[in-house]
Write a structure and sequence with these properties.
Number of strands: 24
Largest sheet: 7 strands, mixed
Strand order of the largest sheet: 1-3-4-11-6-9-12
Distance between the termini: 43 Å
Shape: globular
Strand content: 35-45%
Structural class: mainly beta
Low-confidence stretches: none
Order of helices and strands: EHHEEEEEEEEEEEEEEEEEEEEEEE
Number of helices: 2
Length: about 280
């Protein structure tokens, strides 16, 4: 079963007027990880798709959705997948890729048949999915968490000591425009992506996980001089427009998956916002 919804782009001028409900309706994705379903949210920011697949009773088949106007989902798209559940596999054109917890898979455009499987229905795989338009086909590549390019950033003194795992990114996998990775905060650290930044050439989506029970993350968004916040729970995602910062602080340490697409593949292409100038 496949469900989808669409989100239109919002201007920073309009977002300044949004109340809490409007902010959450426009940017929060809170219907992920539904058992026996593939769920997608189609954003008009860079035509980015965020979704999930949780096969329990049987395999789930990747099917196209109406906004794509395509005969199959990956006809003009590429896809990144990170498993945040039990062991599972993704079968691409008959070839099976086994994904453990926090392993990733990149699938190039032109692949018609994609199946999602769980190894154990009692502990199902939970596939987190990002997809972006693609102009050419690149090979399907599996990337384990151990194979990721790792960056150690931040310090305990500023409560942002974290490991950035670059998984589906140019130095690891060749893609058209999709980039994905996973940032893990160390115990005692709570801030992600601080100092904050914007990158007007690319949009981004954050997916929060490893949030302990009864804890939460306050995600900050908006223009640097006009910030807003959205409270996030485990396995929720949030859309970040190109004009918006994307940062968060938790009541505990946690992990988040970042995915982005846009005009370029330069991971360092960002405009940093000074902490003491945020408003």
């Amino acid at each position: 079963m496949t469900n989808y919804s669409s989100r239109y782009a919002s201007s920073p001028k309009a977002v300044k007027q949004y109340d809490t409900k409007q902010l959450r309706d426009e940017f929060l994705i809170d219907n992920l990880m539904q058992e026996n379903e593939i769920t997608f949210t189609y954003s008009h920011y860079d035509r980015y798709i965020t979704g999930s697949a949780v096969p329990v009773s049987g395999d789930l088949i990747l099917e196209t959705i109406d906004p794509l106007k395509s005969s199959y989902f990956l006809e003009r798209r590429e896809m990144g997948i990170i498993n945040v559940g039990g062991n599972g596999s993704v079968v691409v054109e008959g070839k099976s890729y086994e994904l453990g917890f926090k392993d990733a898979l990149y699938i190039g455009s032109g692949n018609k048949e994609v199946l999602f499987k769980s190894a154990d229905a009692k502990n199902p795989a939970k596939f987190y999915i990002n997809s972006a338009p693609a102009h050419t086909t690149y090979p399907t590549v599996q990337v384990s968490l151990a194979e990721a390019n790792k960056l150690e950033l931040g310090t305990m003194e500023t409560a942002n000591h974290r490991t950035v795992n670059q998984m589906i990114i140019g130095s690891v996998v060749t893609t058209c425009q999709l980039q994905m990775g996973m940032t893990e905060l160390r115990p005692g650290s709570v801030w992600n992506t601080m100092p904050a930044h914007v990158h007007d050439r690319r949009m981004e989506v954050y997916f929060y996980l490893d949030i302990p029970e009864n804890q939460a993350v306050c995600h900050f968004m908006g223009e640097p001089q006009e910030t807003r916040h959205i409270w996030m729970n485990n396995h929720q995602a949030v859309i970040s427009p190109p004009w918006s910062i994307h940062s968060g602080s938790g009541t505990s340490n946690y992990t988040f998956i970042w995915g982005m697409a846009g005009e370029n593949l330069d991971y360092g292409d960002m405009d940093v916002c000074k902490i003491n100038e945020l408003r």
